[in-house]
Design brief:
13 strands, about 0% helix, about 40% strand
């Protein structure tokens, strides 16, 4: 994924036929079996009755979800998706004049203008050198999304002007429901696993498959659009 983080019109996800709720495969991810906080990434092979089976390279992981589970949907986007009032996560570099040139932008429509991160997503942070990783709220937009001003959520952060070149990777993150879960989708799961290896999901993030599928480089991440013209 060359995209904005945790990260989100979403790419259409067809609702494939769901599993019948049969028991998960016996092989369980060693990481999940240890218990504790877990991050699971892979492809859904079974879904139904409040349970998923997620296929990871190291094995299958059983995931439980319910009404309190936060479900998010990621997808590719364009500069025209960048609108005032939305939350945004930007990675890029700070120029000598103080503006930021974006490498990746993720526009988040699940936040209702409150730009604290959802479960499992990192807060924007300072990084060494002129690199930046910013989270905040878009205040104004110009050039069809080729430039915008944002208010970072980090303490003491003033307004920042962000320029979005045609080469920037742009994605969006939207709220969704468990009805969108389907066999064959890629998913990232954040939650707490028990001694039996079942992960109680706090957040489920549905993601398009990458060039290598649901795992590996760019796997399970949105494929950023790279517009050749602003807003295209």
């Amino acid at each position: 994924m060359r995209s904005g983080i945790v990260i989100v019109g979403c790419a259409a996800l067809a609702l494939a036929a769901c599993g019948s709720g049969s028991s998960p495969a016996s092989k369980t991810s060693p990481a999940a079996a240890r218990g504790g906080v877990q991050a699971v990434t892979g492809q859904i092979t079974q879904v139904g009755g409040g349970r998923l089976v997620v296929k990871e390279p190291s094995g299958n992981v059983s995931v439980a979800y319910g009404t309190s589970t936060n479900v998010l949907l990621t997808g590719s986007a364009t500069q025209s998706t960048i609108v005032g009032g939305a939350c945004v996560v930007v990675t890029g570099r700070r120029e000598p004049a103080g503006t930021v040139t974006a490498d990746t932008v993720q526009v988040q429509f699940n936040m209702n203008g409150r730009c604290t991160p959802p479960p499992g997503a990192a807060l924007g942070r300072n990084v060494p050198g002129n690199a930046v990783n910013l989270r905040g709220r878009i205040t104004t937009v110009s050039g069809g999304g080729s430039s915008f001003v944002m208010q970072p959520v980090t303490a003491g952060g003033g307004l920042v002007t962000v320029n979005v070149p045609a080469t920037a990777g742009i994605t969006r993150l939207d709220t969704a429901s468990t009805d969108r879960l389907a066999v064959g989708q890629c998913v990232r799961v954040n939650g707490q696993s028990d001694a039996a290896g079942v992960v109680e999901a706090r957040a489920l993030i549905i993601t398009p498959a990458g060039p290598t599928g649901c795992t590996g480089p760019s796997g399970g991440q949105p494929r950023p659009s790279r517009s050749t013209t602003p807003g295209a």
